[in-house]
Amino acid sequence: xxxxxxxxxxxxxxxxxxxxxxxxxxxxxxxxxxxxxxxxxxxxxxxxxxxxxxxxxxxxxxxxxxxxxxxxxxxxxxxxxxxxxxxxxxxxxxxxxxxxxxxxxxxxxxxxxxxxxxxxxxxxxxxxxxxxxxxxxxxxxxxxxxxxxxxxxxxxxxxxxxxxxxxxxxxxxxxxxxxxxxxxxxxxxxxxxxxxxxxxxxxxxxxxxxxxxxxxxxxxxxxxxxxxxxxxxxxxxxxxxxxxxxxxxxxxxxxxxxxxxxxxxxxxxxxxxxxxxxxxxxxxxxxxxxxxxxxxxxxxxxxxxxxxxxxxxxxxxxxxxxxxxxxxxxxxxxxxxxxxxxxxxxxxxxxxxxxxxxxxxxxxxxxxxxxxxxxxxxxxxxxxxxxxxxxxxxxxxxxxxxxxxxxxxxxxxxxxxxxxxxxxxxxxxxxxxxxxxxxxxxxxxxxxxxxxxxxxxxxxxxxxxxxxxxxxxxxxxxxxxxxxxxxxxxxxxxxxxxxxxxxxxxxxxxxxxxxxxxxxxxxxxxxxxxxxxxxxxxxxxxxxxxxxxxxxxxxxxxxxxxxxxxxxxxxxxxxxxxxxxxxxxxxxxxxxxxxxxxxxxxxxxxxxxxxxxxxxxxxxxxxxxxxxxxxxxxxxxxxxxxxxxxxxxxxxxxxxxxxxxxxxxxxxxxxxxxxxxxxxxxxxxxx
Length: 687
What we know:
The chain is 17% helix and 34% strand. By secondary structure, it is α+β, with helices and mostly antiparallel strands. It is globular.
């Protein structure tokens, strides 16, 4: 074998032009399939910008189904199509359209649980809950069409349908014809109890926890998958204002064990719903009692992850658990989920397993059934959220979750990763909601508790990447971000920094001597920052929905009086002011083969220091051969790979640590083959 290794000249780009773009993220399930993929697979493609979606999808020459509001599409693609589209820098990610499952655990035990509206006089009036599930039978007397179920949608996800348009059948009286799961869920949220109106124990005995809330049914059918669930989120987001959707309840998901993946399209969709002010609840799953069994879509910190309890306020054996000490893998709250009686969709299999048999009420078996599971606990929490929003419509999604968790009853003998903050206490939650000042307006302006990656990067005002012009003085304060903040009253003063990311929050102190500043991003004013307050308080000024791919220049300019900078919360990374993007290129030439049945492997090591933000590399060759390509990190783990049928094979990776990386060429059934590797290291360096 003959090998050449040569360093080419570096190409320098200014930071103003924006950061370098990575290849698309390939979801872990799809990565595992690709090396041996022979047939087409249904995948979810996400672009960075919604406007790019159609032009990207037209390249693959295959039918696709695009979302209305989300920058996502579903398509059935082969290996070559997947790898080709992954090289388009407009594509953010490609994930397998994984089949999902509804969560249910049938039981003969029958319990009530819908009593809160009788005790508190709060019924969810004026609040709308979207039920993303198998569908809703709005012919049921407890779930009447138009008055209770204000819209009932059947989601059709045939990728060959209508040449790439969403297909939602609206106004369907019964969308739950094959399962019964969604109807039971809808009744738990907001069933009127009309079929039990004459019950001697209590009128409307089997009503839901929020019986006067409205329902929007989003019927994904019995065989739900990522594509169908994305369609439900997409519909809810696109029609949020028209239908007044406040909450989305999701009693479905996948098996636990996976790490929290903020780039998964479902997590991106739930984050988009959260950003727009909707409370999102997910079932934790029914794979307990083992640890690390929580539904991966419940791990997102911006959703309420719900476990199931019994009438004795104990955790059920089937309720999924998280992992002790893990930041994301835990249940948030436990709610009634054992033997819950709710609405039965006629002629469907799930409720038929446990009908309500009461001699005094012989018709109940037609209308009600008992079911158990986190599927039943989750709509209970969605209904509780409706009660809180009725008494205080100004609550943000962050506040709704915080109130539910803060007022929960302790569950002695259980750990946080198993039960979160405990068993829901509806009465206490409603009382606290009444006495909480809502901050929904600030939330919608970008002051969210969570970033798109699940955490904000906290940066102190003393960070070396923030430059200050003119005179700023240090002020010690126990109330400030890091124990002190920088203040100025000098005209023309600025605090200047660059960052890569889609949103940020400026943290500052307001008091009775405060003045005014103005915040600029990329030369455009984002508004006046008011530093005045009658009583001292910590405030934030948010900027959101920026391009996550670019380097953004930010300036806080003094206008009048005293202004200050306490710190930053960044959904991304802070850079040195005037940071430059440098592309360093090298190539490798080699020969591999011949090989028949056994793979031949050749490795080439290179060093990536802390300045390397991205590694782009492609493998090309002469003649007919099957070569695959991968990148190994300093620990020897494969972190990027390309195993298409095409030439070249292309990989990309954003390194998380400095060290020696390995480019590996794998040769399958090849003749003697000459190849070339071209690699670009994108570096962020100071001028």
